[in-house]
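Contributing new complexes? Match this layout with NAP.
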Amino acid sequence: MKVAVVTGASRGLGRHVALELASAGMQLVLTARSKEELEEVAAACRRERAAGGHAGRAADAAAGDGPDPVLVLPADIRDAEAVENIMQTAEHTFGRLDVLINNAGLSWIKPLAEWTREEIDMVLDVNLKGAIHAARAAANIMIRQGSGHIVNVASDVGRRAIPDMAPYVAAKHGLVGFSGSHLRELRPHGVRVTLLLPGIIDTYFAGAKEGDRDAAWSMDARAVARVIRHALEQPDRMVLDEIQLHPSGQEY
Ligand SMILES: NC(=O)c1ccc[n+]([C@@H]2O[C@H](COP(=O)([O-])OP(=O)(O)OC[C@H]3O[C@@H](n4cnc5c(N)ncnc54)[C@H](OP(=O)(O)O)[C@@H]3O)[C@@H](O)[C@H]2O)c1
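Output block (do not edit by hand):
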């Protein structure tokens, strides 16, 4: 049974990825800052596992054969020590770590002149440094295991530029470069890296609300989550190293 850590699991794309991996029967560690939202996602994941015929908490406990298969560990992704603890707790609890969905992210949309210094720091620290800390901590375990899969959720603006999100565009460009370099380091250790470059997704991103974005120019987060699951389900000897996807109505 595979073990996955999902960052940014409290809502949006991360929530749908967690549900998708739960229905695939994975054991999960869910993290983000919002404890209550994470608990709601964890409960939904347990139901998803049960519906898929995978043991839920009650069944596991009754059989005396293991911990709750869905663990909630709230943390700020900017806290490198907390992030390291999450990966270690995943390994200690479930005995291994197979998958990291490196997904936590945020931005504001406005001209650079209107960004505060704190907002600039936040966007670089969460989208770039947070993702690097998570990948490093997960990879340390995966290298030891000789297997693992990291999915870095960047953005199509990791490859192109748009106005009014300059710090975010910079952070995602950084993540694209980091991901390519890390992939080449990890390949000899049997650890795979997939870079996801999505266009607009219908989530809570940048103050939006899931369900509010027009289906003509935004992707259903569940559909994007299924693409991530597909990447994870490829044979060991194959890696989907980059996936770019857009809503058909988006200008890009
Ligand atoms: N939506 C889009 O159009 C789009 C397009 C391309 C790429 N992406 C990327 O997709 C990923 C998921 O975003 P989304 O669209 O699902 O947005 P979302 O609905 O706003 O979800 C963002 C997630 O990131 C977490 N997060 C934010 N700051 C954090 C922090 N400091 N520490 C820990 N977790 C933090 C949030 O949890 P808490 O607030 O509870 O901490 C939340 O779970 C991001 O990397 C984003 O850049 C989104």
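Reviewers usually confirm one structural detail per submission. For this one: Helices lie at 12-23, 35-51, 57-63, 80-94, 117-145, 166-186, 221-232.
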